[in-house]
Design brief:
alpha+beta; Serine Threonine Protein Phosphatase 5, Tetratricopeptide repeat; single chain; four-stranded mixed β-sheet
């Protein structure tokens, strides 16, 4: 066969004010506490089963807890979902159906499309992991060669129903099978994994559930010493071989919970990664977490915002005020000492499942301050409570269950403790209630301009596409220039220009005398894309090769190196690196398309057709695969095979003149 012409390969590209944190974060890095030897790199993780050898009661209770059940291998017997008669879920925007199903102990999801009674697309993926205890949800993960991705269906336990996964439900926002599970996701949803550095979502091994070491730190030193007979009298001193959160200062104890229950936009300190923090260290030295404040922020909040909500409470503020006025950690305890201020463990025992807490446990905790002579604030004045005729719990009135803005079909206890007058909930979709007021830092009280700029950039990438976020990032970076050397801002400026698609700005900066190289794969990737977009392909190749050197197992970088080789006319090099990507992860659609195009340009038409067909079996609406395959058919005298593909292209993009021209040529 001889092709008359081919469609060009589309170039793939990656796609106000800030305020201090809430009152909760005044106690941050200022507090000193004990130093632990398992903070160092020589300490390694041993897994919770090792801890069980000496701490069996705590282990047996913890593995039944919500945290202990946070991640497990996918088995029907371990799932909370209904697999007897699962429904068919429709994504109307993409005209796709999803149906979970089980075969014995194995779990699957079927994706398909119908035209009349005919199935025109079918893809089945096996579920490898279940995420979530089932208290609120069971979400699902599949794995190939260590690369982890989210499955698009979730079981919502409280409503006992199946639905599309959170963030997959918005029109045009269904990731299908491509949403990566990164080290940042894993840091809170599971025990510390073996993450492959230089990848985005590859793991050498994955534990089964949050473990003891998430809160106590790596256990190797502790285990080695106990096995050697080195025993510390913990009644008289702290065993510094492992962190005991109960011995931490209140500030550091609160940090342990904040690490995962204060979610939002994470900005990590230079040199820090999601898996690097150690319990007992100041969380503010590891990361800052940002979240926007809006007119309805009191009544609308995300699920994992418990410390942020707690910090709004008068209970919290009064106990921390008393603690700080007395001199902080040095004034704790003793006959004249100040009580420990309110933290998460005031009410929660992290070793015990919520449903196994003793009856009245939470009421008793409240009544330590709000009833009788021990009251240090005010007793309850609700008449029915005073008269003893109301048996409702304190939390049912003062911490009412609420929905969350990020996960549908759930009810979560609102940790903003207050006398609840009827909160006026904004009507859904009202523009005023989406109005951005400021970006609040939730970890520590100090955020410099550079941190806030990175917060805006991350918020733009992960949660919104409003250009105002990029304008705010630029304003903060200009202010940061007065505080830090220009070279320290390189990554952030290049990231900003990439998101703004201001590729010329990146090229000018990189070509200037003031440019200083950084060892950051993403920065080299963005630089390469800027040079590609401005027509300087040979230089783009050099930058993309450097990105791959720094991120060897990062599928996106290798894929785009292959695409850049194609643009540079290095088709055999393109086939070579794209084949490596396909061997690593056979479901990476873009690499099938890019390799097919390189093969097309090499005259390998049958191999190119096979690659395009494989891409469409994975994603039936992938425009570049449809366009390239249609062009191949048209130019090898196969119009009958080309027409349905072009018809689909016109459905997806009716205003595209190239598709219309190809359609007319086929008539």
């Amino acid at each position: 066969m001889r092709a008359k012409a081919g469609l060009l390969l589309a170039v793939a590209t990656a796609v106000v004010l800030a305020g201090c944190g809430p009152r909760a974060d005044t106690p941050d890095a200022a507090s000193e506490g004990p130093v632990f030897r398992n903070w160092g790199d020589e300490a390694t993780y041993v897994g919770r089963d090792t801890c069980a050898q000496c701490h069996q009661p705590q282990f047996e209770s913890f593995v039944r807890s919500q945290m202990g059940r946070s991640w497990k291998h996918a088995r029907r017997s371990l799932s909370d979902a209904d697999w007897e008669n699962p429904p068919v879920l429709r994504d109307a925007f993409n005209d796709l159906y999803f149906q979970p199903f089980a075969e014995g102990e194995n779990l699957f999801v079927r994706e398909f499309r119908l035209e009349g009674r005919d199935t025109t697309h079918l893809r089945i993926e096996q579920i490898d992991f279940i995420v979530g205890s089932g208290h609120h949800t069971n979400s699902h993960i599949y794995e190939e060669n260590g690369y982890l991705y989210q499955i698009p269906v979730t079981w919502y336990s409280q409503d006992a129903k199946w639905g599309l996964a959170p963030k997959f439900q918005k029109s045009g926002n269904n990731y299908r099978f491509s949403r990566v599970i990164t080290d940042e996701c894993m840091a809170c949803h599971n025990a510390p994994p073996s993450f492959v550095e230089g990848s985005e979502n590859r793991f050498e091994s994955v534990p089964s559930g949050i473990g003891c070491e998430n809160c106590h730190g790596p256990g190797s030193i502790h285990v080695e010493e106990k096995q050697a007979g080195i025993i510390v009298n913990v009644a008289e001193e702290i065993d510094d071989s492992i962190v005991n959160p109960g011995k931490l200062t209140p500030e550091r104890q609160l940090d342990v919970c904040k690490r995962c229950h204060m979610q939002g936009v994470a900005v990590f300190e230079e040199g820090e990664g999601p898996l690097d923090w150690r319990p007992g260290k100041a969380l503010s030295a590891h990361e800052q977490v940002f979240w926007p404040r809006q007119p309805d922020s009191v009544s609308t909040f995300i699920m994992a915002s418990h410390p942020d909500r707690l910090a709004m409470s008068a209970c919290f503020e009064s106990t921390w005020d008393a603690y700080e006025k007395a001199g902080g950690a040095a004034a704790l305890g003793g006959p004249n000492g100040v009580p420990r201020p309110l933290t998460c463990v005031t009410c929660h025992d992290p070793h015990v499942p919520i449903e196994e807490m003793p009856d009245g446990h939470y009421d008793i905790t409240c009544q330590n301050c709000h009833e009788g002579p021990k009251a240090i604030t005010t007793p309850c004045t609700e008449p029915t409570v005073v008269a003893g005729t109301n048996t409702a719990s304190c939390a049912s009135c003062h911490m009412p269950p609420s929905g969350s803005s990020d996960i549908p079909y759930i009810q979560v206890t609102d940790h903003y403790i207050r006398v609840v007058e009827r909160d006026v909930l904004p009507p859904e979709g009202v523009e005023e209630q989406r109005r951005f007021i400021r970006l609040a830092g939730l970890i520590g009280s100090d955020s410099d301009h550079h941190q806030v700029a990175d917060g805006f950039l991350t918020y733009y990438e992960q949660f919104t596409d409003r250009p105002g976020m990029l304008d705010s990032a630029a304003a903060r970076l200009r202010k940061a220039k007065r505080q830090v050397p220009a070279a320290d801002l390189t990554k952030s400026w290049i990231r900003l220009w990439h998101l703004q698609q201001d590729y010329a700005a990146t090229v000018r900066y990189v070509s200037s005398d003031g440019f200083v190289e950084v060892d950051d794969a993403w920065t080299w990737y963005r630089m390469a894309q800027a040079f590609r977009q401005t027509g300087r392909v040979d230089e783009a190749v050099v930058y993309m090769e450097r990105a791959v050197d720094l991120g060897e197992d990062h599928l996106r970088f290798t894929d785009q190196l292959g695409a850049t080789y194609v643009e540079a006319g290095r088709y055999e090099d393109a086939v070579r690196v794209l084949s490596v990507n396909i061997q690593r992860q056979g479901r990476f659609v873009e690499s099938w398309i890019n390799r097919g195009f390189a093969r097309l340009l090499l005259g390998q038409f049958e191999a190119a057709e096979e690659d395009f067909r494989t891409a469409l079996s994975l994603d039936p609406d992938q425009e570049q695969a449809l366009a390239n395959l249609a062009s191949l058919y048209a130019n090898t005298d196969r119009p009958e095979e080309a027409r349905p593909l072009v018809r689909r292209l016109l459905d997806l993009s009716p205003g595209n003149p190239g598709y219309r021209q190809l359609w007319n040529a086929l008539q």
